[in-house]
Design brief:
The chain is mainly alpha-helical and 240 residues long. It is built from eight helices and two strands, in the order βαααααααβα. The protein has a two-stranded antiparallel ribbon. The chain is elongated.
Length: 240
């Protein structure tokens, strides 16, 4: 039986400059879109309606362009695997069914931890590595955000924005109302995701631990001796 390589914790830059840029610029755009969106709905009245429309549209276009470029970046760098953690699971029998089973076991372990394990002072069940920066729950949440909430927002937003091109369609007014409702529902889902995300950043070693990690890119991860030697030789600047 092959022995499991010994691993030890080291401070390593695991979040690249682009990941950090993407994270913070996306967060800023989401909150700005929420601010202008609430102005459009009349929930707050800090901006003139016409100004809110223009700012909301420009911010939405910027976010869509950011998502498009980031999608390209994720696929070209292989970072997309971080959002599909079961692709990184290797089982002894090599079966996908076994990998999915391991994934769901890890998922429920993380859910249990956040449900009450964290209140009892238990250790987090997920140990970060270079290949597994995100736990199973994070990966699933981000995947949902990127393939459901995000596309729903930009698709309904674009259709709404281009209403003048299809306002001659029968029952166009009814369809516009439905599109507006779906856009608002997706927007609230995104706001909920952002609020929960902000809360989760306070559950680290200290309330600001995860925030600092996303600013500096440095996080404590478990490295095998091979990984440590590789980083020290090829990427010494990543060793914190």
């Amino acid at each position: 039986m092959a022995q499991t390589p010994k691993r030890s914790k080291h401070a390593v830059v695991i979040y690249t400059r682009y990941e950090r840029f993407w994270h913070w610029s996306q967060a800023a755009l989401i909150f700005f879109l929420a601010f202008t969106g609430f102005n459009l709905h009349g929930s707050i009245k800090l901006l003139h309606f016409g100004t809110a429309v223009k700012l909301h549209t420009f911010a939405a276009i910027a976010l869509i362009l950011l998502w498009i470029f980031t999608t390209f970046w994720n696929f070209t760098t292989g970072n997309w695997k971080q959002f599909l953690p079961f692709f990184q699971i290797r089982t002894t029998d090599g079966k996908w069914s076994s990998a999915f089973l391991v994934f769901f076991i890890r998922l429920f372990a993380v859910m249990r931890y956040y449900a009450y394990g964290i209140l009892k002072g238990e250790d987090h069940p997920h140990k970060k590595t270079l290949r597994r920066k995100q736990n199973a729950l994070q990966g699933l949440a981000y995947l949902t955000f990127m393939i459901v909430i995000g596309p729903a927002l930009w698709a309904t937003g674009i259709i709404y924005l281009l209403f003048d091109l299809w306002n001659g369609v029968p029952n166009a007014g009814l369809y516009l109302t439905i599109i507006a409702f779906l856009h608002t529902a997706a927007a609230f889902a995104m706001i909920a995701f952002a609020v929960i995300h902000v809360y989760m950043t306070t559950t680290g070693k200290t309330p600001t631990h995860y925030i600092k990690s996303m600013i500096t890119g440095v996080e404590d991860v478990e490295l095998s001796e091979v990984e440590k030697a590789y980083l020290e030789t090829e990427y010494p600047e990543r060793m914190g």
